[in-house]
């Protein structure tokens, strides 16, 4: 436990914020903690006698710490950057495989508390691994920062990387709720030391270095919470793409990273119970497959990438600051914000919020609360992402079609739903409505990460005189897109639906993407970007 003058704590936090903003020395959140939290929301896996969902919920102090841990040794203020390669290696499949084999060898089931914490920590690491791949475009095309560079920085990945990593932290704090953030971390130091020895075949990093560098990371995390969201306008002006696509971008947005995290959780659960011999384990963790056909034949080797580093000799002994307590436990350490530090952070944050309120303009004529609300029970559903209106049931009144592409249920992530609410003579029903229970029609996707409901169109596809509803699911399919759903207008009762097929080009052609929707006797071509779309009767 560390005890030094308490007046240093807020100064230390402020110093860390300024230092990070100037040098981008590390990206504490980069959405990894929100991503890990979102991934756990609908993860459900039981292997053997272990309920992994319950295990992760039981040990959030280890799970959250693991989700940030792989970046611990990138920092210049961590041993003058001498352990950079340890962080690099902690991002890839060989380290994950070594960790799984270590757990199976050293901690046979049933697991004690130390083993459970180590497993939770490893799940957090795995979430970080796959999130980094899609965020940084590692061995894949069209990842978030790559796209951001093309859109906002004239094709410069380096500039997008510099802005996006810290900017992602800023947006996370500005847009997302962090009430679930743990005030303590558990780091399985002794186990990590042993795993690294197995991985390298010799001692590369000492236990006290693991403790020291993760402690810096812990303080930085709470330092960033001290007003980092106030930088939102600065980073929004640098990259509109970052602001607009941060959560929903199809490869590296927060929702997508949460899906890939859930996917690798299932794989780790399988390997912890069955071993790694039945799994395909390429170096890039996003391509891991277990007990299935190994489809990826030409996966590139690791693409090394560098965190932004500070090369100067900035090495304050933050281990002397009295911001947090460092408590040694059986096989690791617990970092915990003490009550004085938590109170200081809350006080400064409240002061900054109060100062901002002085610049808030009030408009008394604006509507500040809804007259009614339509809602669903699933968090992160993105209800209202797509909406159209049309008279679907032929009663002369406009009906509402609403997409919720992020809709999930336990064990089924981002399958998506579409809700249809029939209008009345007076308009839409004014009552507060749970759409899961009270919508007139509910359509649901059936493939994980399908994001059914991302786009909507209403027109008479088959020229039978009745309007049909086409629903887009952009993340589904490999060579073909197969997820157009058509409401049977002849019998518009709840749940009545028929499934058609939509074919698209993959990869997309250089011109506007065109889809052909096949009906009973005709096919209708429709396009994006306002391009001409006509009816083709030559089936």
TrEMBL record:
Its EC number is 3.1.4.50. SUPFAM superfamilies: Integrin alpha N-terminal domain (SSF69318). FG-GAP repeats lie at residues 369-430, 438-497. It is an enzyme of class 3 (hydrolase). Belongs to the GPLD1 family. SMART domains: Int_alpha (SM00191). One of its GO terms (molecular function) is glycosylphosphatidylinositol phospholipase D activity. InterPro entries: FG-GAP (IPR013517), Gprt_PLipase_D (IPR001028), Int_alpha_beta-p (IPR013519), Integrin_alpha_N (IPR028994), PLPC/GPLD1 (IPR029002). Pfam families: FG-GAP, Zn_dep_PLPC. GO terms for cellular component: extracellular matrix; extracellular space. It catalyses: a 6-(alpha-D-glucosaminyl)-1-(1,2-diacyl-sn-glycero-3-phospho)-1D-myo-inositol + H2O = 6-(alpha-D-glucosaminyl)-1D-myo-inositol + a 1,2-diacyl-sn-glycero-3-phosphate + H(+). This is Phosphatidylinositol-glycan-specific phospholipase D. Keywords: Glycoprotein, Hydrolase, Repeat, Secreted, Signal. Gene3D superfamilies: Integrin alpha, N-terminal (2.130.10.130). Residues 40-215 form the Phospholipase C/D domain. It is found in: Secreted.
């Amino acid at each position: 436990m560390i005890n030094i003058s308490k007046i240093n704590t807020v100064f230390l936090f402020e110093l860390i914020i300024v230092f990070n903003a100037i040098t981008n020395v590390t990206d504490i959140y980069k959405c990894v903690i929100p991503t890990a939290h979102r991934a756990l929301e609908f993860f459900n896996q039981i292997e053997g006698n272990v309920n992994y969902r319950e295990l992760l919920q039981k040990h959030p102090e280890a799970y959250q710490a693991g989700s940030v841990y792989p970046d611990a040794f990138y920092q210049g203020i961590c041993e003058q950057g001498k352990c950079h390669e340890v962080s690099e290696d902690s991002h890839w499949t060989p380290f994950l495989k070594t960790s799984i084999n270590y757990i199976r060898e050293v901690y046979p089931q049933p697991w004690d508390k130390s083993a459970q914490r180590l497993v939770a920590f490893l799940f957090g690491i795995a979430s970080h691994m796959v999130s980094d791949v899609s965020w940084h475009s590692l061995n894949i095309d069209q990842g978030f920062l790559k796209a951001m560079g093309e859109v906002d920085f004239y094709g410069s990945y380096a500039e997008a990387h510099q802005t996006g990593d810290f900017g992602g932290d800023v947006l996370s704090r500005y847009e997302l709720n962090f009430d679930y953030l743990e005030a303590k971390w558990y780091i399985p130091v002794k186990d990590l030391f042993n795993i690294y020895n197995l991985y390298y075949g010799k001692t590369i990093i000492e236990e006290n270095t693991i403790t020291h560098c993760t402690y810096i990371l812990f303080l930085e995390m709470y330092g960033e919470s001290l007003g980092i969201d106030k930088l939102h306008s600065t980073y929004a002006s640098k990259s509109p793409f970052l602001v607009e696509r941060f959560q929903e971008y199809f490869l590296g947005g927060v929702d997508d990273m949460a899906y890939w995290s859930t996917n690798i959780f299932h794989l780790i659960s399988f390997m912890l119970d069955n071993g790694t011999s039945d799994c395909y384990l390429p170096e890039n963790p996003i391509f891991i497959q277990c007990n299935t056909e190994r489809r990826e034949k030409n996966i590139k080797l690791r693409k090394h990438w560098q965190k932004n580093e500070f090369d100067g000799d900035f090495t304050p002994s933050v281990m002397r600051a009295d911001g947090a307590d460092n408590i040694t436990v059986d096989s690791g350490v617990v970092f915990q914000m003490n009550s004085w530090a938590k109170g200081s952070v809350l006080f400064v944050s409240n002061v900054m919020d109060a100062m901002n309120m002085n610049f808030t303009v009030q408009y008394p004529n604006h509507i500040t609360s809804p007259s009614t609300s339509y809602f669903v029970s699933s968090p992160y559903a993105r209800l209202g992402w797509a909406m159209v209106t049309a008279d679907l049931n032929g009663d002369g009144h406009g009906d509402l079609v609403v997409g919720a592409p992020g809709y999930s249920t336990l064990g089924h992530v981002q399958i998506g739903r579409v809700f249809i609410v029939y209008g009345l003579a007076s308009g839409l029903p004014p009552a507060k409505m749970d759409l899961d229970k009270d919508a007139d029609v509910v359509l649901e996707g059936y493939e994980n990460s399908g994001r059914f409901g991302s786009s909507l169109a209403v027109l008479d596809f088959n020229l039978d005189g009745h309007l049909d509803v086409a629903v887009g699911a952009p993340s589904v399919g490999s060579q073909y897109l197969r997820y157009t759903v058509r409401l049977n207008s002849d019998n518009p009762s709840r749940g009545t639906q028929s499934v058609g097929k939509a074919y698209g080009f993959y990869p997309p052609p250089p011109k506007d993407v065109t889809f052909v929707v096949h009906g009973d006797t005709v096919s209708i071509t429709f396009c994006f970007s306002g391009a001409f779309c006509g009816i083709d009767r030559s089936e």
